[in-house]
Amino acid sequence: MTDHYREERLPRYTSYPTAPNFTGVVSAAIHADWLSSIEKTATASLYLHVPFCRSMCWYCGCHTTVAQRDAPIADYLTVLRREIELVSNKLANPLAVRHVHFGGGTPTIVTPEEFTDLIGLLREQFLIAADAEIAVEIDPRRLTCAMTAALGRAGVNRASLGVQSFDPTVQKAINRVQSVEQTATATAGLRSAGVRGVNFDLIYGLPHQTVQSCVETVEQCVALRPDRFAVFGYAHIPTFKKHQRKIDEAALPDAAARLDQAAAIAQALVAAGYERIGLDHFALPDDSLVQAQAAGLLHRNFQGYTTDSSDVLIGLGASAISRLPQGYVQNEVVLGRHAERVLRGELPTSKGYGLTADDRLRADLIERLMCDFEVDLAQVCARHQTRPEALMGTAPRLQALVADGIVHLDGNVVRIASNSHILVRTVASAFDAYLTSSGGAYSRAV
Apex CA 234: angle with CA 233 and CA 237, to 5°? Predict the structure, then answer.
């Protein structure tokens, strides 16, 4: 594997074009127009952002803030409820929803009663399917028995638990001390409450992390038998996330060590009976992600790999991003500005991007590469009424990847070599018409 590819900083391609390309050209008025023109037959997903934690994990790349008091959280929920009503009122018809995702921050920082009320409001304003997937991101250190019970009563059926690493040295270095026992208790409690799907999140490339500590963490996790794992490489971008400056850069593993850690985690999970899903997810053989991948129906959005094929993704809350048929919209990131606009009765639109025909083509192509590690350019181009020759002419980087043995071309089929799947973001970037040379805002390819 060519070393310089591992050092590149590239998008994770959970959207295309990616967020750095969003601009203020997309206003609240345009956002409202886009919402009102969503077709009655469209299916939708909802993402609700809760940007609060009780303490800051120094590796975190999310939009979140530390709240030691409950008052700011309650105030935010008042604003969020108002935003839900604003968005719903802009729609010509109630939207059918099959996926709801609460992200953070720590969504379970709210009280059980507040969470129950929020779910109730969503059910009033949208047509949430009886079998909809309702997922919540959880910090096991902060999960109470009362909240666990409330999640079950509210119909939550998937929980994503942050683990990252069980190595005490690593935990101290990232300001996140979490025991195996806390994680096991949370997992058992959720399952008892009826939350049948449990996911664990792991991270490699953390300070003082080693291959051995990664494998030991996997062994401790698989004993709890979660349904899925998401395994991410730590993105060290202290220019954008100032709290990351508290991490000792000298303790971070280099590119070769990161690659070894990623490979060791993958090998251990596969040996434990998990199927690899795309770049960084793993699931038990009977999981819906495995079935979707086998059928060529796997998708990728801001939450990673998913079975979600909805036409519309509506993001609610500060910094949340929506994907509408016409393009992307991001809400105000700063909490005060977000609240100010919502309480004035405005959509809190900060910026966005209107999709072109070429964007839709490349988004389709990149998604298939990210999900399947190969793509038939002729098939994708046929869906978008164009020819693959024109697309190949705008991807000179692809020829270098072919020359380096990372990509194989079989007619119009672009296939990533089996030993280079970890460089799928690199291959996807060959079709990114907007990628800048700096890449400063992105994480390493490996």
Answer: 135
Q: Which CATH architecture has domain 38-316?
A: Alpha-Beta Horseshoe (3.80)
pLDDT higher than 90, residue 395: no
Distance CA 324, CA 111 (A): 31
Q: Quick: pLDDT tens for 424-435.
A: 999 999 999 988
Question: Which distant-in-sequence residues (6+ apart) come within 8 Å of 141 by Cβ?
Answer: 178, 182
CATH number of the domain located at residue range(s) 326-444 in this protein: 1.10.10.920
SS3 label, residue 351: strand
- Give a three-class secondary structure readout of 255-317: HHHHHHHHHHHHHHHHHCCCEEECCCEEECCCCHHHHHHHCCCCEEECCEEECCCCCEEEEEC
Sequence-separated (6 or more) residues with CB below 8 Å from residue 286: none
pLDDT tens digits along 320-347: 999 999 999 999 999 999 999 999 999 9
- Determine contact, residues 47/320, Cβ cutoff 8 Å: yes
How many angstroms separate the CA atoms of 85 and 106, rounded?
Answer: 23
Residue owning tokens 């060529």 = 296
**pLDDT digits 0-9 by tens, 228-279:** 999 999 989 888 889 988 999 999 999 899 999 999 999 999 999 999 999 9
For the chain, what are the domain ranges?
Answer: 38-316, 326-444
CA distance 71 to 411: 61
